[in-house]
Design a protein that fits this description.
The chain is mainly alpha-helical. It has one domain. It has helices spanning 3-32, 42-65, 78-103, 110-130. The longest helix is centred in the first third of the chain and has 30 residues, at 3-32. It starts with a helix and ends in a 24-residue tail after the last helix.
């Protein structure tokens, strides 16, 4: 597995742990009602789980598993993948910080809009990074033939 995919997947695992910890705290607070301030972290929990864990894991596995672009540039322009990583995580971290602050009345909606815009840029960057690697049968004509394995006949 190459570096970019590894970084995406490990970051996704870190967000999963953070989401589980925060989700547990929010759940305990709902039952025991420790503090009204903790309830403001429920949207953060969902964002950590869906954007941080699921989306990031999908991006990493797709970048790792999709067919190579060419022998010279197997993954295409990796800078686009790094742009997707930076904007996805930048948007998510802004959301983690400013979502509770907004719920408590300390900040305006501007940081949340910037967070959403960064995540949209991440989605577009990912599509641009992976699109050339989605190939049809005609594009596989020139590849080297696969050697036959004994288990293939079963």
């Amino acid at each position: 597995m190459y570096l970019q995919a590894r970084v995406f997947i490990r970051t996704a695992l870190a967000y999963l742990l953070a989401a589980l910890l925060l989700g547990g705290l929010v759940l305990v607070n709902q039952g025991l009602n420790f503090s009204p301030y903790i309830a403001a972290f429920q949207p953060v929990f969902y964002h950590l789980l869906t954007v941080g864990w699921l989306t990031q894991l999908i991006f990493g596995v797709a970048l790792w598993m999709f067919p190579v672009l060419s022998k010279q540039r197997p993954r295409g322009d990796e800078r686009i993948g790094w742009l997707a990583y930076a904007t996805l995580n930048g948007g998510l971290l802004l959301r983690v910080v400013f979502e509770p602050l907004h719920a408590w009345g300390f900040t305006s909606v501007g940081a949340l809009v910037l967070s959403a815009l960064l995540q949209v840029v991440a989605g577009w960057a990912f599509v641009f990074a992976i699109w050339p690697r989605v190939k049809g049968k005609a594009e596989y004509k020139n590849r080297e033939p696969r050697t036959k394995n004994r288990n293939d006949e079963r």
